[in-house]
Amino acid sequence: MEYYTDAAVAYKKCLQIRIVHPLAMSNLGVALDRRGDHALAQKFHRNAVWLAPDNAYNRTNYALSLLTSGNYADGFREFEWRWNRGAANGNRGFVPQWQGEICPDCTLLITPEGGFGDIIQFARFLPAVALRMGRLITVVPKNLLSLMRLSFPGLEFLARGEAVPVHDFQCPILSLPLALGTTLDSIPGAEGYLCADTAKVSFWAEKIRAHAGTSPREAAVSPKVGLVWAGAPRHETREIAYVNRRRSVDLATFAPLARMNPGVVFYSLQIGDRASQAGDPPFPIRLIDYTAEIVDFSDTAALMSNLDLIITVDTSAAHLAAALGHPVWMLSRHAQCWRWLTGRTDSPWYSSLRIYRQKVPSDWSDPVQQIATDLAPFVGCKRNRDNAHSSDQVTI
């Protein structure tokens, strides 16, 4: 918080020296947004846009401020300026962008954009889009392909890199809310819209039970919590790599969860560079790690479906678990992503998501401590439900 205040003071001094300075106005708006003062921030963003209407960086800063404050109508419209920054990774091509038209005789190609979490979050719009088009084709990364095909069986998906058929319109997946006129009150699928493969769910259930060496009932009573402590670094994009450093933690940061809740069994869901920390000694209990057997997101979804709770930093695992309708507690950095809004611990995007935000930038101690405290009653409620269910069973 202190350096956001220092930044705001510095940009104010700059504007005192040179009152007409669009970049300083936009950056002052960003600093104020980081402090949660969106109404004031947007005054500076609007001035910056008025002075330099073609500056895509200033327009995108304004968009993120609007989105963070929940103004989706204006925010998603301004967000289209991201394409002029050279930072987005969609593929607009030469085909006209779909603007929400009803075209029963046309083919629409949805192109991937952002990270895995972005694609999972915005896939909820695909059924509504399909109702407006004759044919809908959605391109996704290969390791999302089986999950999407299973979850949306009536829709057509291709893996990124495959040849795409001729189409009349295209639309980046993050532009779908604009095309559909989405507001905070009209976000679909908050209760969940993805499905786990039943055969894979059964596979993981048996593996977990066999590993525990217990009966199915005994294995069910032991609370099982999945952990994800780091996002993908994505070093090729400096801005995203910077965000990843701020959103990620080391596994040792989660130590209070185990120390305060010794009856919980923890499972690693961590993929990537920091996955090896699952075997590091600082964690006070053994972390069960099956991630070497995970091939794609459908495997992760099935494993998650056998766990009682997912605790994760702000990465694709949070979107996956919540899109499955599964309980997920997410640690969020102080200057959190626009999609989580400001001052909320819940989300209009996901009913099963609970947000634990840093009170002080770069300090995870408070949210981790709060999760550790909240975990005890969660575990108690689960055991009570399981015991009550067990008592209802009659052996003949």
Automatic annotation (TrEMBL):
One of its GO terms (molecular function) is glycosyltransferase activity. This is Uncharacterized protein. It comes from Acetobacter oeni.
